[in-house]
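Comment on the following before class.
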Amino acid sequence: MGWTVETLNETVDVEVEALPEDMRARLARIAKLIEEKGLERVGEPHVKRRLWEMRLKAGAEFRERCT
């Protein structure tokens, strides 16, 4: 069975759309990696195992999105 990455709800969609373009691109890239390889095979710095959180970093700014 393959992986599908989805957002939780419309609130999250709005938050993602509010991110800078480079961070949205990184989020899309990480989601594609998860869908292609599986969550277990995508490692740090993109995904941390303990909480299965996805991490995005753009320049000096750092944000975390937990799933």
